[in-house]
Amino acid sequence: MGALGWLSPRxxxxxxRSVLAGEASAEAARKSARAAEETAPPDSxxxxxxxxxxxxxxxxxxxxxxxxxxxxxxHFGRGLYKRKFFETRDLAxxxxxQAYFRLAGLEDPEHMQDARDSALSIVKGxxxxxxxxxxxxxxxxxxxxxxxxxxxxxxxxxxxxxxxxWLVTAAPVEIAQVIARRLGLTGALGTVxxxxxxxxxxxxxxxxxxGPAKAEAVRALATAEHLDLSRCAAYSxxxxxxxxxxxxxxxxxxxxxxxxxxxxxxxxxxxxxYRTGRKAAKVGIPAAAGVGAVAGGTxxxxxxxxxxx
Length: 309
Fold this sequence. Notes:
Layout: H1 9-39, E1 58-61, H2 72-82, H3 88-104, H4 109-123, H5 128-143, H6 149-160, E2 164-172, H7 173-182, E3 187-191, E4 193-196, E5 199-204, H8 212-224, E6 233-236, H9 242-247, E7 250-254, H10 258-267, E8 270-272, H11 278-283, H12 289-308
Parallel strand pairs: 1-2, 1-6, 2-3, 6-7, 7-8
Antiparallel strand pairs: 4-5
């Protein structure tokens, strides 16, 4: 006699239906679970990042168009012009040099030397303390509202994980330090202008912190801070910073120019784009502040052309 044979026909029928219902319900549940697994986003297999409590990890952020829309030195120049540090013709030349560099994307040594000399001539003879104080004011006037919220959140994630966060920029170190402090970051690496007795001489100490020089600065800081670069992160918008990005184990392309975007995709680096204008993304110009810089540079070019005729 089967397991249900002792039951009456009616009860055997009811029990069999219950078993069938139970099996059907179980099968439906299994199918539902399988369907959920199939439609769920795939597991990236990557651990949480940044890693909390990893004291040998840190983050390095480029400044211009990565943390802030536009070039810090351009905004600083606007503030100095407002305070009559130089004349209109100097502003026109300065704006044109900045626009040319960002539009052409070329690192012509002669052109870059000319731009560098112009910037240094502006601060020559002024006290370092004076420029630092003015930098605080200029941050509030022109820079604070141009910080990318998305990049700021990335930096904060590293800070919340207990890691140090550094700005790495070709902008003057005094400006970079003001911005880093205002954002609550650890500190900044920037271009150092020579000063004697607290007064700028109009010369640089070494070269601008640009391209390969950034990578060397990050490497030196990592050694001094006992960091493991394979556990560190770096963020930039420019292909000029590929040497810095290539140093770390976690490189990010932020608002990338076309060359960096291509390079990042080939190497499967992470990309983040916080700009709203796709045209800006294609040509590598800041979507907001960059428009003003280009417009100012174009006007300056016309004015210079007319003056030379």
